[in-house]
Design a protein that fits this description.
The chain is mainly alpha-helical and 403 residues long. It is built from 18 helices and seven strands. The chain has a five-stranded antiparallel beta sheet. A two-stranded antiparallel ribbon has the order 1-2. The structure holds calcium ion.
């Protein structure tokens, strides 16, 4: 069953682009292409190449539509995990672990666990399967030109990625017909944006080209090198699921409080399965679905995964899939699957209500980020609720009902 992964691929843009924004206006590349060509030339792209590749490009209506969908899209963490860490994803990943002969050498060269690399490969492109789907794979220059001409607040980012894509051609790293990617311009087996390609892509199979589009060894080694640059620590895990004692002070699960594993244990926290590290190793505590969902202690390597894609659901999916590929079981604790997902308006209402009650959220934008979660914890503690910082329908009801 390829559909869920393909859908993930369509919607799971790199986090910098996965955050909500107003619906873009109808793109009009014809009007803005001259400016993009001028910008590329200013940035050192060969003028004839910039003109030949950009002149006459038309907007990709599917790309424009995808940015609109993205703004409203906020999938519960468990729904994302169901798709990304399906039984088939685990089974296919185990097949790749056995068949991709470059993995031991990549692991030895870069110190990144092969199970993590294969997990990223699976979540980013269904182990490369979506790259063979002409309905999903798009010309990167057209996608990025469409996005750079939408007029939304990320135009500078899209323009920089477009210039980087042109530079890839200028450097002869691939040909225009092979410069393909997702609607957001993410390319190849592990979905590098063009700027990431220029900084981190490398040739591992020895043919002289860093080909993340058709060479799995190149893509996986590039990913390992990128993870190292993001702080991945060889020989360490990402963390793991933990069980909290009755009466636990949930304010410690605030995304910043860091303790040693011995200190967390002294607070009554125990691993739900395998050991998480040594007593002196440090970790943060996270409750991605609040007190009614699983708890996790996160080691520094989890932060490296968040560097790859800042969406917590994404990092947890990579971490969990890597464990499943290693033969570990699923999570012990269940998710609050009966919860009704909140819409953007409801998330905004929660934020506005918190602000009105004296708990600043740093701007009412419909996105539940660290500041909003801190405001929720402060409100919950003040009214005698479990201060887990989780925004759900019961919190909204409570905010509406009283002080
Ligand atoms: Ca190569």
């Amino acid at each position: 069953m390829r559909v869920p992964i393909a859908l993930l691929w369509l919607f799971a843009a790199p986090a910098a682009f996965a955050q909500g924004s107003p619906a873009p206006e109808e793109p009009s590349p014809a009007a803005c292409l001259p400016g993009l060509i001028a910008r590329a030339k200013e940035q050192g792209v060969t003028p004839a190449l910039a003109e030949a590749q950009l002149a006459g490009l038309t907007a990709d209506p599917d790309v424009a539509a995808a940015t609109g969908r993205q703004a409203e899209f906020e999938k519960p963490v468990w729904a994302y995990l169901d798709s990304a860490v399906s039984d088939e994803a685990v089974s296919d990943g185990k097949t790749k672990l056995a068949s991709e002969a470059s993995l031991p050498a990549i692991e030895a060269a870069y110190g990144v666990d092969r199970h993590v690399l294969v997990a990223i490969w699976g979540i980013e492109s269904g182990y490369g399967s979506v790259l063979d789907d002409p309905r999903k794979v798009r010309p990167v220059l057209r996608s990025l030109a469409t996005l750079a001409c939408t007029g939304d607040k990320r135009v500078a980012t899209w323009t920089a990625e477009l210039v980087a894509a042109l530079r890839i051609l200028d450097l002869g790293r691939t040909t225009p017909d092979r410069l393909t990617g997702s609607w957001a311009g993410a390319m190849g087996h592990t979905q590098f944006m063009p700027t990431t390609y220029l900084r981190h892509a490398l040739d591992f199979d020895g043919d002289g080209r860093a080909d993340i589009w058709t060479s799995a060894p190149d893509a996986l080694a590039s990913t390992a090198q990128y993870l190292r640059s993001l702080g991945w620590r060889p020989g360490e895990g990402w963390g793991g699921e933990v069980l909290l004692p009755a009466g636990f002070d949930y304010r410690l699960a605030d995304e910043t409080t860091t303790r040693t594993l011995a200190e967390w244990r002294a607070l009554g926290i125990a691993p739900a399965g395998r050991a998480i590290g040594a007593d002196t190793d440090t970790a943060r505590l996270a409750l991605p679905a609040g007190a009614r969902g699983p708890a996790f202690l996160l080691r520094p390597n989890f932060q490296a995964l968040l560097g790859y894609n800042a969406a917590f659901s994404y990092a947890l999916a990579v971490a969990h899939l890597s464990d499943r590929l290693r033969g570990e079981p699923g999570f012990v604790q269940g998710w609050p699957r009966g919860d009704r997902p909140l819409g953007t308006d409801e998330r905004r209402e929660i934020q506005a209500s918190l602000e009105a009650k004296g708990h600043p959220v740093g701007g009412v934008d419909g996105r539940i980020g660290p500041k909003t979660r801190a405001a929720i914890r402060a409100y919950q503690a003040g009214v005698g609720l479990v201060p887990d910082g989780y925004a759900d329908a019961s919190l909204l009801d409570r905010l509406r009902a009283g002080p």
